TrEMBL record:
Residues annotated for substrate binding in this entry: A100
EC number, UniProt record: 1.3.1.9
Superkingdom field: Bacteria
Active site: Y150, Y160
Top class in the EC scheme: oxidoreductase
Binding site for NAD(+): G15, S21, I22, Q42, D69, V70, I97, K167, I196, N197, T198, L199, A200
Name this polypeptide is given: Enoyl-[acyl-carrier-protein] reductase [NADH]
Keywords, ordered alphabetically: Fatty acid biosynthesis, Fatty acid metabolism, Lipid biosynthesis, Lipid metabolism, NAD, Oxidoreductase
Protein's pathway: Lipid metabolism; fatty acid biosynthesis
Listed GO biological process terms: fatty acid biosynthetic process
A Pfam cross-reference name: adh_short_C2
Amino acid sequence: MNYKPLLGKNAVVFGVANKWSIAWAVAKTWHEAGANLIIGYQGERLKKPVEALLSELPSSPPSLAFPCDVSNEQEIKSFFSEALKHFPKIDLLLHSIAFAPKEALEKNFYETTREDFIKTFEISVYSFIALAREAKALFTDGGSILTLSYYGAEKVISNYKIMGPAKSALESTVRYLAYEFGKDQIRVNALSPGPINTLAARGISGFTKFLKECEAKSPLKRNVEAKEVASVALFLASDESKAITGQTIYVDCGYSILGF
């Protein structure tokens, strides 16, 4: 990429699991656009895969990775303290984290247990608040915060179960954070991609069937690719989108416009 709209920007990305992750597509695109990069990964299990991905990137601009368990407040604080040693400020933050216990995705929605509900919302929604709150002080020159949602936040996707209400809450969180962070010129938005064959998506029963349905029914007659989501994330990270905040933007080949 010859055009470097993020040259000199500092970006923090959470949610990279492997090379198919949407978070990795965004991280890679931001890095190609000139951003310095720090990846926050979940646990020792992901350390080597994340470091292997970073090793494929050019050494300039720099890219680093540090552990961060988003269910642990102290780890979040420690992560940003470590980031501050390398970056004097943050300009961009991507939250691409979602989790629901396997049992909660296999049962009827009304059978969701209190424990599974709390765990799902803690990891999928509260982690966004916690990361944004801790990062806010480092956004000394405004910037852009993004998270990833899904159409199941707005309409019923039968096998999405507890993740639907969680994504609804996440999109509402985007609006409230956008309102409160706006005076500091920090923009907060959500991307809502169509189905993409990621590790997280494969945990949803019937996912392959839904991929085929979206391809057949969407106006563009195909499914979205991770690199296309990353392109929109690049736009929302750049100064070209400085008047956009509090929005959920669909990147789904038009599937979300359909009615009967």
